[in-house]
Design goal:
The protein is built from 5 helices and 2 strands; from the N terminus they run ααββααα. With about 180 residues, the protein is mainly alpha-helical.
């Protein structure tokens, strides 16, 4: 075979990426699957071409779900801090000024707590981050990839484990004396 007359210098590669990557198309399945190579998530730019990239994706999804749970915890802590701040200010006010309502012998109630505009803005930012990340996770789950779904489940477990120690609630002194403490 004589290749002497072939011009290798003028070969047109048709815009192919010569970076060693695969030119295989994305494999998107709306049925349960275990696809690792050529799986695509959310866009063509998130095209898994090798096992390392897929492992990074699974670990990232796990960490995103843990992050969501931590943001929920931070939001609860912020809510507690602004309520505690309100209660501290309220404690400094004389008793008569704290009460509202008629003095017709009925029980008077405390003024309801309302966050300031700045506090509500911060609370809304927490919700925005939590909601946005959860929506992305939901979209990832819709690819029905078993590895991704188990990463979501395990991330939810780990995130709740590390960030929900506060949800048992405060046990009041009279509840402790009566043996009616926290359920957990």
């Amino acid at each position: 075979m004589d290749n002497g007359s072939m011009d290798h210098g003028s070969m047109d590669m048709g815009g192919m990426d010569m970076g060693g990557g695969s030119d295989a198309a994305c494999r998107v399945s709306m049925l349960w699957n275990w696809n690792i190579h050529d799986a695509c998530f959310l866009s063509e730019q998130w095209h898994i071409r090798n096992t390392g990239a897929f492992a990074g994706t699974v670990i990232s999804v796990f960490l995103i779900v843990v992050f969501i749970e931590c943001v929920r915890r931070f939001a609860r802590e912020y809510d507690r801090s602004i309520v505690a701040e309100y209660q501290a200010k309220l404690a400094a006010v004389p008793v008569d000024a704290k009460l509202t309502g008629e003095s017709n012998g009925s029980v008077r109630t405390m003024k309801p707590f309302r966050p300031t505009v700045k506090q509500q803005f911060i609370r809304s930012l927490f919700y925005f981050v939590q909601f946005s990340a959860a929506y992305i996770v939901m979209l990832l789950a819709m690819y029905f990839n078993g590895y991704i779904i188990f990463a979501i489940f395990l991330g939810g477990f780990a995130g709740f484990f590390v960030s929900s120690w506060d949800t048992c609630g405060a046990v009041e002194a009279e509840d402790q004396a009566a043996g009616n403490g926290c359920c957990c």
